[in-house]
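Researcher: I need the complex structure. Ligand is nicotinamide-adenine-dinucleotide. Inputs:
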Amino acid sequence: MRTIGHFIGGREVEGKSGRFADVFEPMTGEVQAKVALASKAEMRAAVLNAAEAQVAWGNTNPQRRARVLMKFLEIANRDYDKLADCLAREHGKTVPDAKGDIQRGLEVIEFACGIPHLMKGEYTEGAGPGIDIYSMRQALGVVAGITPFNFPAMIPMWKFGPAIACGNAFILKPSERDPGVPMMLAALMIEAGLPPGILNVVNGDKEAVDAILDDEDIKAVGFVGSSPIAQYIYERAAATGKRAQCFGGAKNHAIIMPDADMDQTVDALIGAGYGSAGERCMAISVAVPVGKTTADRLMEKLIPRVESLKIGTSVDPSADFGPLVTKEAVDRVKNYVDIGIKEGATLAVDGRGFKMQGYENGFYMGGCLFDNVTKDMRIYKEEIFGPVLSVVRAHDYEEALALPSDHDYGNGVAIFTRDGDAARDFAAKVNVGMVGINVPIPVPIAYYTFGGWKKSGFGDLNQHGPDSIRFYTKTKTVTARWPSGVKEGAEFSIPLMK
Ligand code: NAD
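Model: Output:
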């Protein structure tokens, strides 16, 4: 059986803790590899190695740092198919979807190639008599990223791209469920010319995460995963004075106004609700039709579409979605469906019994659709993270607007309408971080920032875009006076720029 170690100091090294986790192939249900789980001591050694390497990297001019990222883009594109195949086989999502996962990560690397411009400071000549003021952005040192299973290419790149471009060394602790692609990306960065020790992948579980959080030489931690862990990481990182940005779970609503184009809306809901088996933090998991007529029209079109979803293996190019990530994930999602039935929701489509012929041990389930879900139900309040869409019927626009606004999570939301006034009002008022107008998964592009509100995001800066440069640098401001501007005598009161 293949074993996956760590990537430290520019090469793959064996794990020494003696602890391993199984890496499954969700489409067959078989264990395909064992991944090493790092000890506290292994993490510490990686951090010390990274800290040593960072000094020279931080002093390398930004243009040269950008050139490494440009080369990485070239060779990652060369290996696109290999990366997508590994990703699909470890995660379960289909190959075309895996390619999207890689592509959205590479777009942030493209953004980070602009680092010479992005890291520029400010300068004011003559802020006072003979006084000039300027600011500069400097790397933090060693920073870390802890990432989830559901985007094993995109989210690591969102983190390490800007961090490394800014001159930091990076410790990536990817999900132990699909570590293959992060290891491949680290090797490609070395091939692209990154000095050893600047990008390290340390595989592991809670022990490795806690070692990151308690290590005083790690200056910032970026986390993406479920909300309880996000909150835990945010709080524990603060104890050692780290910067932290921790993104959590979601319950993304789609509001369907009576004037919405129903065919387009149903297409959008099917893709955003069931793509990647619903294992996306920006998946639509709640549809809110406004008014009874809208709800009835929606259900009439939605039911046959959910019934005819094509579930396939991860390597079947015609599949709408593939298996879930683990058997535990399937059991958890099916359990939520049972809960929904007990709570009194109407199960309009039941995908629990789906079996994939020839792949009976794979982690499959069919799409499920609930109608008449209400806001007191657990299936509404909690994140299910599977191919289950809940329809909550709203009487009017105000009630529909209040649902996502009052929900604990606040990642993404969408409104489907032809009415510009309604859309504008919704975008201004809804209490959620990312809004789509006739766009079901409003993931902002690389040069804007990505981040949810409320329980979906802890910390004050978003991922990628300009916020990522702010997060991975500290600002130093210099006030300089030259002798020609010096007045005679000492000043005892607070200096003013007269
Ligand atoms: P998870 O919280 O189980 O794991 C995320 C990371 O935390 C992994 O690296 C894991 O090893 C580590 N971890 C798990 N348990 C831990 C513990 N007790 N202590 C310390 N570290 C721990 O999340 P997941 O199942 O990998 O990913 C799915 C979740 O991520 C969903 O809730 C999804 O909504 C969320 N997500 C959010 C975003 C976003 O940007 N808001 C993006 C993608 C995924």
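Model: Summary of the prediction. The CA atoms of residues 84 and 99 lie 5 Å apart.
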